[in-house]
Amino acid sequence: MDVKKSSKLLQTGTLKLVLKRFTKFVKNKDEENRSRHIVPISCLSHPEFQALLRKSEDEFGFKQEMGLTIPCDEVVFLAVTSTIININQKDLIGSTTK
């Protein structure tokens, strides 16, 4: 297994651990605050973001008005998206230095 693939597997494992730990702190749905975030297209194909999208589909279905609601705590969402963005930036930097 090459180093790049091993590094991606480690990062994906780290994301899963972060997601699992933070979901324990999810607030009661009645007290839930909603925020709007713009997500880079590059995040959409990442396995961890795909998991959030499946969770959204399971809870709300395909017909959602006024954007997409993802049923997780904002801290989890921000942790997942920022980690994916950092991974993508490192991959982009790594591919330009070769």
Question: What's a quick, concise take on this entry?
Answer:
It is built from three helices and no strands.
Defining key terms:
single chain, 98 residues, mainly alpha
Notes on the structure:
- The chain is built from 3 helices and no strands.
- By secondary structure, the chain is an all-alpha fold.
- It starts with a helix and ends with a helix.
- 13% of the residues are buried.
- This is Small auxin up regulated protein.
- Belongs to the ARG7 family.
- It comes from Dipteronia sinensis.
Number of helices: 3
β-strand amount: under 5%
Q: What series of H and E elements makes up the topology?
A: HHH
Total number of beta strands: 0
Share of helix among residues?
55-70%
Oligomer: single chain
Class inferred from helices and paired strands: mainly alpha
Rounded mean pLDDT is 77
Major sheet: size, sense and barrel closure?
none
**Rg calc:** 15 Å
Q: Roughly how many Å apart are the termini?
A: 19 Å
Query: What's the overall geometry?
Result: globular
As residue ranges, the low-confidence spans are: 27-31
Write the layout of secondary structure elements.
Elements: H1 3-23, H2 47-60, H3 74-96
Pfam families: Auxin_inducible
Keywords: Developmental protein, Growth regulation
Protein name: Small auxin up regulated protein
